[in-house]
Here is the input.
Amino acid sequence: MDIDFDNVEPGADDIERSSESSSDDEDEFTANLGAELSPPPDAQQPPLPASHPEQQPDNQPELDSAQDTRIRIETALRSKLYSTPYPSEKAGAPVSKPSRLQAGYQHYADKLNSRANVYAPFNSELDWRVARWAKLRGPGSTAVTELLSIPELCDRLGLSYKNTRELNRLIDTEIPNLRPQFKLKEIEMAGEIYEVYFRDALECVRALFAEPEFARYIITKPERYYTDEDKTMRAYWDMHTGKWWWATQRQLDQDKLGGTVVPIIISSDKTQVTLFRGKMAYPVYLTIGNLPKEIRRKPSQRGQVLLGYLPTTKLDQVTNASARRRMLANLFHASMREVMSSLKKPGEDGVEMVRGDGVCFRCHPIFAAYVGDYLEQLLVAGVKYGECPICEVPRDKLGDSATQYPFRDLEAVLEILAIADDRPADYLQACKHAGIRPIYRPFWDDLPYSDIFLSITPDILHQLYQ
Here is the structure.
């Protein structure tokens, strides 16, 4: 039985029995990432357990098969693991020259220009503790302001603020923050102007990479893990153990040896924030695959960055339903293109980034995965409803695991999208034949080392559990 969820986010424990070995043939890299990520050939299955339905009378429950499979997998996951490191020592290695960039704590201290007072910009530990209580445990801004307005309270406690407004200003302006500020971009669509608020994606990646608390957990190169000494059964549990990172590192080394892959993981979902008048928000989040999934998936660890807010308009002024759907898709991709624009050149050429402990790497931020529900997957991949956003399985065969279908051909899709300006009639017909939406310049069409059809992750909640 083959179980292969390499790109599951935040990650799924699974193993794969394949006929692959640790020989040079297995390491042979091809420029086609789809071939590297394609399912392995069928391998001989282990003997069926005694409780398997084929070994039992017809009245034996079929659930025994799933139970036996689960037991075999969990046993393998608890066994000793055998690793194969990435063959190049230069991959993911620190750069030789000293960095002029600063790590998190150094940056913080220099910005405050105060090394004697560890609670700066607050006056004292008491000043900081009151502020911390007010923001994390306080009953509300009005109540805190009334408390601070008690005569002589602020003076006797030596507080550097007298109300919540001053406290908020102190936090926003005086405390250094590696995470960038939001900026505004206006996008015109159907004669209307729509606003996109977003942070610089590259600076968000740099902030996560430079976080001092993450320094000892940062992963800089891929590895292969096996559950048997012969290295025939692969084990996957995090991004660096999968096939994508290994294949991308090989391709990057061919172009520019010595780089560190920084897998970019994007997630988004339009969310209703109020019941009154149905107010909506469309947040986009960013994290990096160099962080272990145990950090990425916990909001308290701050391993995710709010990257931006996309327009939530429904384009009600467009009466034609087909045209409205097309324009909404184009608005989404035009907005995401602005949000992701700062990652293109660093992904190709690399950029110096400092880890939280001050060690510098030449990093290549590469778009790796997009997390969303099925409707979000269709919008991102530009695929029509009812189709698979990943492979070429026919509509009536969705859910059929007996047959393996090839991934969608990115190059063929890009060729179709390239004729939008010169041959619009042929463009619409080609999109219809390929089962994709006629999107003008999707945000992922020029991102280096990326394949959107390999970046869509399973929607565990809606596609498996429900």
